[in-house]
Amino acid sequence: MSKKLFVGNLSWGIDRDGLYQAFESFGEIEDARVITDRDTGRSRGFGFVTFIDGDAGTKAMEEMNGKDLDGRPLRVNEAMERQEREPRRDSW
Prior knowledge:
Layout: E1 3-8, H1 16-23, E2 29-36, E3 43-51, H2 54-64, E4 68-69, E5 72-73, E6 75-78
Antiparallel strand pairs: 1-3, 1-6, 2-3, 4-5
């Protein structure tokens, strides 16, 4: 079963290829994407990596969380579907 990871605190210079390369040593990647602003095309500082094998995703999450990539410590956890997330407190 696949596992999708949220990768936060990306530097502005990381693109899809850079994100893919940072995680490819853990296993086969189904998808890697950096989320961009629709108006400017600039990175929003986060992305997602989906591993075909869930165990590879778990290992990547454990080993990459807090690791430095391009001068910034990554925040890596399992991605949640929109309806599963808690509402942001500043939107109340």
